[in-house]
Write a structure and sequence with these properties.
Layout lengths: L1 H23 L11 E5 L14 H11 L3 E5 L4 H8 L1 H6 L2 E4 L4 E4 L2 E5 L2 H5 L1 H16 L11 E3 L4 E3 L8 H14 L1 H12 L5 E6 L3 E6 L16 E6 L9 H4 L4 E5 L3 H12 L2
Parallel strand pairs: 1-2, 1-10, 2-3, 10-11
Antiparallel strand pairs: 3-4, 4-5, 6-7, 7-9, 8-9
């Protein structure tokens, strides 16, 4: 039964990818004004948290790209963004900025990369990771799994519960965190331990937070979009401390705050497809 379910999921995903390729194959021939670009967060904005993009969103993005340039920026690495959006969708974006733009694609092709290890140095990075592991071991929460620290090109992702948790455990931790401020308290301790590293701490998603050099938040990607006169940004974590806050409030962007991908679709249709 389990094998049959996995086979059905695989077949459905392949059918989805074929449909995506058909939806986006004409985009390269279109001429669009570079006055405006629409930039999206991924988790909670284009998809449900850590879920694959749904057909309604795919269709809406396809219509949007007929009129405007479209880009995506996420804190996750490229592999995780592709898991959620699928490769045909990622390749269809004019720009894909993974890890806040420290690993960037243009029309599906890599063009820019920057490393947190090179920025702060290996000795300081090692001390930071060792201290974080110690503080994580002292946190008492109902469930702990694996992959508590994930090193990425432009940032470090820290998860008190561990990124290997199930979706149900994610949902339960998110509620527990809202009540007990697990992530906020851990961030406060790290800020006290490392006041001189010039690091920024940004809560995103359900179970983790990102750590990166100041200035390497999502506004980092804006340096690659200087040719556009108007940049619209959509995100769900637009509150102070959320990983969309800096770019949402930037003078370079017109910010749109949404609670879920359904609100994103409604706003796109209202503002850009009428």
């Amino acid at each position: 039964m389990i094998c049959l379910q996995k086979l059905n999921l695989f077949i459905n995903k392949q059918l989805l990818i074929q449909k995506l390729q058909q939806s986006f194959k004409t985009f390269q021939k279109m001429e669009r004004s570079k006055d405006k670009i629409i930039l999206f967060d991924v988790d909670g904005t284009l998809t449900k948290p850590r879920n694959i993009v749904e057909q309604d969103m795919i269709d809406t993005l396809a219509e949007l790209k007929k009129k405007h340039y479209v880009a995506v920026v996420g804190g996750s690495d490229l592999h995780k963004i592709i898991e959620q959006l699928t490769k045909p969708v990622v390749d269809s974006f004019d720009y894909c900025f993974s890890e806040n733009g420290t690993y960037s694609l243009k029309e599906g092709q890599f063009f820019a990369k920057r490393s947190i290890g090179d920025e702060i140095g290996e000795d300081k990075l090692k001390k930071f990771i060792n201290t974080t592991l110690r503080l994580l071991s002292e946190i008492d929460i109902p469930v702990k799994r694996g992959t508590f620290i994930e090193y990425r090109n432009g940032m470090i992702n820290i998860s008190p519960i561990g990124r290997n948790c199930s979706q149900q455990e994610r949902d339960e931790f998110e509620k527990f965190d809202l009540q007990h401020n697990i992530r906020k308290n851990l961030i406060s301790k790290l800020e006290s331990e490392f006041p001189d590293l010039n690091l920024k701490y940004s809560i995103g998603g359900q179970i983790s937070f990102d750590v990166f050099p100041i200035g390497w938040d999502k506004t980092y990607c804006l340096r690659f979009l200087e040719e556009f006169k108007e940049i619209h940004f959509y995100g769900d974590k637009t509150f102070p401390g959320g990983n969309d806050y800096e770019i949402y409030t930037s003078e370079r962007t017109v910010g749109h705050s949404v609670k879920n991908f359904q609100e994103t679709i409604a706003s796109i249709k209202e503002n850009f497809l009428n």
